[in-house]
Amino acid sequence: MKVILLGSGSYSGTPKALCNCENCTRARKFPQYRRTRFSMYIPKIRALIDPSPDLYYHLKHLNEKIERVFITHPHFDHIAGLPELQVFKEVIFYSHEKTLSIAKLLQETFLGQREWRYIPLEFNKWYDFGNFKVNHFPVVHQPGEVAGGFILEIGEKRIAITGDTGPEILGDEKTLEEIQGADLLVAEMTHKHSIPRTHLGVDDAVKLAQKVNAVKTLFVHISHSNYTHEELEEKVGEAGIVGRDFMHLGI
Ligand SMILES: [Zn+2]
Ligand SMILES: [Zn+2]
Ligand SMILES: [Zn+2]
Questions:
Q1: Residue 13 to residues 87, 108, 118, 161, 224: CA-CA distances in angstroms?
Q2: Start and end of every Metallo-beta-lactamase domain (predicted)?
């Protein structure tokens, strides 16, 4: 099975406007260091994870049909590209009902009536949709706001996506047990150092990868203020793959 990472970056992307840090300077010069906002695509079930603000650019390159969309949480870097899905007549959205209410609002505000469907998922519950199973698990990311990750079971393969999460995920035994030994772990690695209740730093993202012990781990949602791509590759070592935009991964 194939998975395509469309965007490997965090909220401001790399380069960030007006920033002259090493990563932003390099990204302006060399396109391979650019990071658009996080999103990924699973061809087998024509599923998009998170309609990022860069969705127009992602769709233009991908040129594939999207039938279903999973939304981890309603921060703008994970949902603001939703109106770009207007090119598709039928789309089914899956997320927590609070996230879906924001998705619906974006649809109604920018596109009006559509034949789109919204399927609310309760946290920590398995749903069987025939060609795939899904579990939306809660994470600690922004106090008072709803945020979660997904476990997708497609055929024989299990893909776990953390979404944006604080380091508290390392102590979440229930979730760790569910995602243990997944075929693919997509873990956020936003900053150099973790920010409690917000984002994972490099060390904690690696710790998570080691705890989960997935067949493959992909690190994503990388901020411009993080280490350079090469430094990150050195730091994560055997623990996983440092994401790049439009990376194709076999699992
Ligand atoms: Zn984010
Ligand atoms: Zn920068
Ligand atoms: Zn977020």
A1: 24, 27, 28, 19, 7
A2: 36-224
**Is 2-250 a CATH 3.30.470.20 domain?**
no
- Interval 228-241 mean pLDDT: 98
Q: How far apart are CA 85 and CA 83, in angstroms?
A: 5
Ligand having the closest approach to the CA of 19: 2
Give per-residue pLDDT as tens, 173-214. 999 999 999 999 999 999 999 999 999 999 999 999 999 999
| CA separation for the pair 194, 189 (Å, rounded) | 9
> Reduced to 3 states, what is the DSSP secondary structure of residue 227?
coil
Rounded to whole angstroms, what are the CA distances from 87 to 57, 83, 115? 13, 9, 12
Residue 59: CB atoms within 10 A of its CB come to: 21
Distance 227 CA to ligand 2 centre (A): 11
Which pLDDT does position 188 carry in this prediction? 98
Distance CA 9, CA 231 (A): 16
Q: Residue ranges per domain, the chain?
A: 2-250
